[in-house]
């Protein structure tokens, strides 16, 4: 089993707060990680709320959970029983009065606006949120493993598939299941063919500015509907909207967000790409590597990091700006080349925002200075720098 770096964060959260919510899309490995944590925690109870037997135990949740005082209770698929959030508030407060202040509940759920809103209203000040991304470069290794991760994506089952064909089939079924079963379970009534077309169109937009009105015209739906559909994909952690960074520099700045399919393997499946050769011959290759790099960097970044991009109307641009918890501002350019150069636009943009550090992430193996202010660095090496700060 691949050791997930998020395990340390979850254990730290349980040592600091009564409840931790671990959010992520289906099949990303939340249950596997929770069971791994349960194996290390004495007196731990795991309940899968998709299992009728486990759900039946919570027919009278107050009485049942009263009997579990002293145990870490893991509740998987928590969105299945939204009424539990209010119960958990009472449980946490009762246990606090008994002197048990931390490590009471680990909640697992597919990220959604509804889930976050329910827990925020009921458990404010009692819960820490964490996100489980797909597998990362630091978890799977370099060389052929990194290439396979880029092509297949970070869902464990697709990464570990015995062939590219099996991996592609898994992702095809994953996309179909989300569209036909999972999304309707959140109470959202979106025609599956429409949402699939939108998801695919966003793949063609990978790394580009989001133009909701253009998407609405192409789909023959209203712009509010497109915005609502994209909000759903963002809530489910399938799409990332990277916001622009605003600073008063006396220049006209781009205000639209950039959009990415978060998992590179899902992106490639939406575009019909199965192999590394397929990817290299497709126009999306550069944008795919950019999105893959950004997701890996954000997975490694310390808790509390904010992410942006920066672009002026004149063309000065930074692919990724990280505002770290210590208030340092890192400007990061992503290049697929192993011999990168500094673009004039990046240099100007880094001056605009007064970046603390400047990096050009490349696909090679070595770090080297590009000038007095900018370091060319492999993806994994920059991830290690970020991880060391957490």
Describe what this molecule looks like in 3D:
With 390 residues, the chain is α/β, with parallel strands linked by helices. The protein folds into 2 domains: 6-131, 3-Layer(aba) Sandwich (Rossmann fold), CATH 3.40.50.300; 137-388, no CATH class. Helices cover 46% and strands 17% of the residues. The chain has 18 helices and 14 strands. The strands form 3 sheets. A 6-stranded mixed β-sheet has the order 9-10-11-12-14-13. The protein has a 5-stranded parallel β-sheet with strand order 2-3-4-1-5, sandwiched between helices. The chain has a 3-stranded antiparallel β-sheet with strand order 6-8-7. Strand 10 (317-323) and strand 11 form a beta hairpin. Helix 12 crosses helix 13 (223-235). The radius of gyration is 22 Å and the shape is globular.
List keywords for this structure.
390 residues; alpha/beta; Rossmann fold; 2 domains; 6-stranded mixed sheet; 5-stranded parallel sheet; 18 helices
- Main β-sheet, in a few words? 6 strands, mixed
| Percent helix range | 40-55%
Which range does the strand content fall in? Answer: 15-25%
Terminus-to-terminus distance = 24 Å
Q: Report the total helices.
A: 18
What is the approximate shape? Answer: globular
Q: Could you say which structural class the secondary elements and strand pairing correspond to?
A: alpha/beta
- Average of pLDDT: 90
Give the strand tally. Answer: 14
- Strand order, biggest sheet? 9-10-11-12-14-13
Whole-number tally of structural domains: 2
Q: Which regions contain 5 or more consecutive residues with pLDDT less than 50? A: none
Instruction: Evaluate the radius of gyration.
Output: 22 Å
